[in-house]
Amino acid sequence: GATPQGQMTLIFGRECSHSMQYFYTGVTQGINFPEFTAVGLVDGQQLDYYDSNIRQAIPKVDWIKNVEPEYWTRNTQIYQGTEANFKVDIGTLMQRFNQSGGIHIVQRMFGCKWDDETGATDGYSQDGYDGADFISLDLRSTSWVAPVPQAVITKQKWDVADAEYTKNYLTQTCIDWLKKYVQYGKISLERKVPPQVSLLQTDPSSPVVCHATGFYPDKVMISWQKDGQDLHEDVDVDETLPNHDGTFQKRAELKVTPDVWKKNQFTCVVEHKSGDPIHMILTEEKIRTNSPGNNVPGIIAGLVVAALVLIAVVVGVVMVVKRRSGERDAANIISVT
């Protein structure tokens, strides 16, 4: 897809690093969804939001309100310009892919990270079309990579007009803003909230799910052990999902039959920087099921909400503001045309 989770894990995997990420999404008309959305996040917390219906950047966390008032005016102008470009881009890409109609999606995803222990920095920028990679920046060679023929024209244009600027933005301007945001949101971003862990099962024959929720920050490790040894087979670990309150949740499914886990000791281990690892031994008594008196439906509803929150975030976009008058907008609202 246009936003491979594996790459994100590699880019933002270390606990001592801070990250800033931005997402744009443009869609064709005809569905009940804004034609353009913008979302920005710092360390997994959503900063602000913009879409083509409200046409205004709005804050999503209290601490971002500490920035200067002009921030919101400038950001709104940047998003409006990006929105206009994305509408043109969708039409251009439909022509390149020989499409005359239907629902189509353009996505841009970029960000930077800063390790507050080593000072190391990194960044990325990539575009997708209809869920597939379209073009991405290679920071080392300062050139754009076109994985599909339809992107070659864009690569040729951007290599000349944009590659050096985008690299400088990701490795300098983006980092400066990230450090500023981390300072603004220090108390909120550095808080540590431990996970609540449950063992869930929809019915006696279904897999047992180890579900951790309510934790912050988002880095967490969930694993299953059999008789004290790490178990990799018969285990399916899902991606971390955001909750509506700014915390996160994650689940790991154990795909073994009850007759197997009743004869051995299976343990779910949840590791989070908020404290010592949590060990939950699998027993029938600890499993919460769909039977009367249990609240698994509520938990499952929470999972659905988390998935919708994730969609709302990933289907989004945001660009940061120019830092002083005369500097080119950090929004990088270059068109594919």
From TrEMBL:
<dbReference type="InterPro" id="IPR011162">
    <property type="entry name" value="MHC_I/II-like_Ag-recog"/>
</dbReference>
<dbReference type="Pfam" id="PF07654">
    <property type="entry name" value="C1-set"/>
</dbReference>
<feature type="transmembrane region" description="Helical">
    <location>
        <begin position="299"/>
        <end position="321"/>
    </location>
</feature>
<dbReference type="InterPro" id="IPR003597">
    <property type="entry name" value="Ig_C1-set"/>
</dbReference>
<comment type="similarity">
    <text>Belongs to the MHC class I family.</text>
</comment>
<keyword id="KW-0812">Transmembrane</keyword>
<feature type="domain" description="Ig-like">
    <location>
        <begin position="195"/>
        <end position="283"/>
    </location>
</feature>
<dbReference type="InterPro" id="IPR036179">
    <property type="entry name" value="Ig-like_dom_sf"/>
</dbReference>
<dbReference type="GO" id="GO:0006955">
    <property type="term" value="P:immune response"/>
</dbReference>
<dbReference type="GO" id="GO:0005615">
    <property type="term" value="C:extracellular space"/>
</dbReference>
<dbReference type="InterPro" id="IPR011161">
    <property type="entry name" value="MHC_I-like_Ag-recog"/>
</dbReference>
<dbReference type="InterPro" id="IPR007110">
    <property type="entry name" value="Ig-like_dom"/>
</dbReference>
<dbReference type="InterPro" id="IPR001039">
    <property type="entry name" value="MHC_I_a_a1/a2"/>
</dbReference>
<dbReference type="InterPro" id="IPR013783">
    <property type="entry name" value="Ig-like_fold"/>
</dbReference>
<keyword id="KW-1133">Transmembrane helix</keyword>
<dbReference type="Pfam" id="PF00129">
    <property type="entry name" value="MHC_I"/>
</dbReference>
<keyword id="KW-0393">Immunoglobulin domain</keyword>
<dbReference type="GO" id="GO:0009897">
    <property type="term" value="C:external side of plasma membrane"/>
</dbReference>
<keyword id="KW-0325">Glycoprotein</keyword>
<protein>
    <recommendedName>
        <fullName>Ig-like domain-containing protein</fullName>
    </recommendedName>
</protein>
<dbReference type="InterPro" id="IPR050208">
    <property type="entry name" value="MHC_class-I_related"/>
</dbReference>
<dbReference type="InterPro" id="IPR037055">
    <property type="entry name" value="MHC_I-like_Ag-recog_sf"/>
</dbReference>
<dbReference type="InterPro" id="IPR003006">
    <property type="entry name" value="Ig/MHC_CS"/>
</dbReference>
<keyword id="KW-0472">Membrane</keyword>
